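Structure first, sequence second, as always.
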């Protein structure tokens, strides 16, 4: 695919545009004007923060591919955000959410493992030529890399590329399918996150543990609420970015050490620096929630964490190219069917065990989106729930390589039928 130069290439200008979009969305979503009230009853504000940058990227105004903003947001702002969002969390409350969260995550993984081969099988009837190709250009090899991404993350995807040996051309096409289909599904989740009650009623789900956790955190916030001073804000950012620095320091030493000395652990993504950045930042935030640092929530720690998270939302949005579907529509058809199978399996399991939609959304995104976007979907329900998304996403890194390898074997089986 030919690389087109966007209208705006300066990242400082692009960042200014993204911040203007965020400011516009939040200003209008809190407006008392009847038009905006009606508009945001239909369209959740977080969806716009995500979708407007996607439109600008799709029409060549900005480029997520050429910009380094996503890397900055995911490596610097995300871990800081995770620290600030977990400062006030009730860890015991998270544990009280029970086994349904884990069951829904595993159902999501099973949905990806089975969904890929089923999608390839169905689409092969529509377009038999899809089963063509020779050696590294066989489509199943490329689809296995999507499985790695959708169960675990980038490290698992790279592992599947090495294991199954897809050609560079096929791999680049699969990345386009991965990004577009995953981002469209995330948009759907963000839309329904604003109104989970309807689905919970259909499933007869008991979401009392989730509501109890939200209320407990909110009551605590109210009890320590104060007008933040400059000193308070500096402390909040100081702690957040200090732990981000520590997480990078640990990751820079630990990931290569494990990769060189314990290569077998790479199947758990333990040689991935991003994995350790997320784990150390989240762990640091959880540990701080047992100390006096927790009181910084009264000065707006989670609010500032949410600001950083929304910047990440905008940079994730600008990764999506809505026009990419025109390049290889049949590949995207497989991706769409694959995601549908994944969703159907999750909804069926949720219905059977009466799991709240929160577990469906976060369990799915912990698989498909990983640590960068699972907390975004979780915080769309309530900012206090962001750590649940992170903890579930970390599970994805652990099972991603195994699940994707099994999916790859099943894809090969369908291809050779």
């Amino acid at each position: 695919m030919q690389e087109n130069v966007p209208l705006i290439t300066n990242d400082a200008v692009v960042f200014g545009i993204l911040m203007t979009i965020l400011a516009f969305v939040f200003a209008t979503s809190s407006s008392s004007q009847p038009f905006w009230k009606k508009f945001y009853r239909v369209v959740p504000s977080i969806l716009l923060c995500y979708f407007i940058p996607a439109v600008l990227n799709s029409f060549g105004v900005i480029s997520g591919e050429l910009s380094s903003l996503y890397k900055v947001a995911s490596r610097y702002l995300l871990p800081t955000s995770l620290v600030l969002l977990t400062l006030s969390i009730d860890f015991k409350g998270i544990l009280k959410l029970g086994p349904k969260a884990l069951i829904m995550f595993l159902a999501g993984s099973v949905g990806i493992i089975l969904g890929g081969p089923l999608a390839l099988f169905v689409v092969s009837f529509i377009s038999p030529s899809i089963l063509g190709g020779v050696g590294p250009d066989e489509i199943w090899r490329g689809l296995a890399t999507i499985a790695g991404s959708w169960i675990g993350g980038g490290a698992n995807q790279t592992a599947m590329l090495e294991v199954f040996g897809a050609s560079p051309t096929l791999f680049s096409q699969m990345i386009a399918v991965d990004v577009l289909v995953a981002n469209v599904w995330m948009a759907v989740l963000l839309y329904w996150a604003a109104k989970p009650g309807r689905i919970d009623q259909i499933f007869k789900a008991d979401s009392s543990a989730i509501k109890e956790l939200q209320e407990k955190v909110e009551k605590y916030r109210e009890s320590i609420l104060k007008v933040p001073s400059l000193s308070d804000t500096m402390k909040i950012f100081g702690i957040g970015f200090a732990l981000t620095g520590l997480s990078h320091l640990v990751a820079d030493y630990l990931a290569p050490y494990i990769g060189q000395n314990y290569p077998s652990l790479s199947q758990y993504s333990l040689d991935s620096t991003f994995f350790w950045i997320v784990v150390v930042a989240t762990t640091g935030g959880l540990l701080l929630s047992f100390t006096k640092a927790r009181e910084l929530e009264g000065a707006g720690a989670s609010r500032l964490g949410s600001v950083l998270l929304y910047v990440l939302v905008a940079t994730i949005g600008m990764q999506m190219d809505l026009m990419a579907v025109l390049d290889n529509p049949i590949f995207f058809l497989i991706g769409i069917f694959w995601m549908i199978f994944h969703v159907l399996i999750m909804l069926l399991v949720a219905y059977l065990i009466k799991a709240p939609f929160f577990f469906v959304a976060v369990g799915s995104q912990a698989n498909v989106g990983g640590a960068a976007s699972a907390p975004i979907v979780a915080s769309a329900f309530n900012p206090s729930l962001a750590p649940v998304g992170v903890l579930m996403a970390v599970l994805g890194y652990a099972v991603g390589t195994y699940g994707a390898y099994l999916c790859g074997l099943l894809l090969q089986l369908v291809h050779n039928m």
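Margin note: The CA atoms of residues 70 and 327 lie 24 Å apart.
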